[in-house]
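Sequence in, structure out.
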Amino acid sequence: MKMTSLSDPFFLTHRALRVEVARMAKQAAGTVVDVGCGMAPYRELFSHTKYIGIETRDASRAGSGKAGADVLYDGVHLPLANESVDNVLCNQVLEHIFEPVAFLSELHRVIRPGGRLMLTVPFAWDEHEQPYDYARYSSFGLRHLAQTCGFEVVDARRTLADASIFAQLWLGYWFKVTRSKGRPSPIGKLFLAVLSIPVNILGIMLARALPSNPDFYLDNAATLIRIQRDT
């Protein structure tokens, strides 16, 4: 996913997530497995690594697509050997996992000791890719879940923890109401593009002018280290 334009209703969140994933990518070396890669929007950020995109065989039903995948799997057992991966990227996927402990335990299995799990997950977002949307995570809930599954959070950040979140949520509202039966009409797309430009600009200005609020934010972006899981 290259930088989108101001006419994109999700410009603010796409820009913020890309900044966080790019920062994580600089710390990655060796093999990077992108679990739930969808269209593999961040592949280019990991050009210095051995990048492998993995997606479920039925991903298109959930709305994310699978065109960027190098490997398809059953959604339960990753086709990877124990402790064989240096890094795993999991971007905006965990909220679509009904059994997160089992999922993270499977990631723990394939990551080598001391390897990294680079994770982003929503905190304040609408329901999306219905009916495959099961959870939202606070930073504390995410840390507890990580520790339960044998990971230590070594870096935790929050995106749009400022007044720009209001611009993004406002555009998210219009994105949904301009869609008929899940698909945008030509008029709706035009309206949303025209609306997005001034609202995105306003969001940028509000973020600079008003105080930040670390307790009200859009997404979590965390780096986890794989440690020995308690038995």
